[in-house]
């Protein structure tokens, strides 16, 4: 899809995520009802839904603070896909979003019901629940092991229904939901 005049003026002829200029095109963000100007590299990585090249996406440190809500939405959605990366988790925790933008970030673009996040026993988990680890988990990049029986309070759900997020030993980590059981 070609860049229209308004999108070209808004973006200044640069990718609104990484500031690249090669092969700019309009990338639709359906949930926001708008488009973002993206370079060929960003478009290719987002279009096929495959694993993202983490090194490219450090550009989100800038784009997530854009004054354009649609750019914020797309930036946060990409960050959520990268939530296993500590820098992406930290950025998601610190970014301020209006309630409307936050709702668009978490909205299911297809309009279909998302698969619920379930614990090891099949119980549906909700944001804010307390869970208990059912096995020792080595936490990559931190040098500690989250011990079996550790309570993780006030969990957050991620875009991936197989993952939850929570704090263990003061560090926010991503936990595979099959390794927890809902407390209480």
Automatic annotation (TrEMBL):
Protein name: PhnA protein N-terminal proteobacterial domain-containing protein
Native species: Spongiibacter thalassae
InterPro entries in the cross-refs: PhnaA_N_proteobac, YjdM_C
Domain PhnA protein N-terminal proteobacterial, first and last residues per copy: 6-47
Database matches in SUPFAM superfamilies: Prokaryotic SH3-related domain (SSF82057)
